[in-house]
Amino acid sequence: MRPLPGMSVIGKYPLRFDADLAVAMLGDTGIEGVVIGDASSESAGFGRVDGFAVAVRNEIAKDAQVVLTHDQTEDREGDALDRAYHHRSFADRPTWVRYSTYSVLAALAGPATIAALFQAWWLLDSFFP
């Protein structure tokens, strides 16, 4: 897993997906990167591989390192949407939603329960004629 002459490794990753993601992030900024790894690394177990490396040209190595270590900016609008729609407990939902959910669950379990009762009756009736 050695880079070509004139290239330097700027990151090592345990999975090929992570290395490809890093190369895609570099590509978004116009920096060409290469994933370096053994062909057997994808089929071997995790304990037997050295992982994958991302290499770039020596002249742009510092810029590429900045791109990969750059902190993501805060997304206030996205955070507000998450708080509004995705973090509600079941007890906080409207009453009609809770009762509808209970009704659907009862409707799903009802036929199986009735069938089990009929089978139990048939079994007990066959034991005691």
Overview of this structure, please?
This protein is of the alpha+beta class. The protein folds into two domains: 7-69, Alpha-Beta Plaits, CATH 3.30.70; 90-127. 50% of the residues lie in helices and 12% in strands. It contains four helices and three strands, in the order βαββααα. It has helices at 16-28, 61-69, 76-85, 95-127, and strands at 7-13, 34-36, 52-57. It has a three-stranded antiparallel sheet with strand order 1-3-2, covered by helices on one side. The radius of gyration is 29 Å and the shape is elongated. The mean pLDDT is 84.
What's this, in brief?
By secondary structure, the chain is of the alpha+beta class. The protein is built from 4 helices and 3 strands; from the N terminus they run E-H-E-E-H-H-H. The protein has helices spanning 16-28, 61-69, 76-85, 95-127; strands at residues 7-13, 34-36, 52-57.
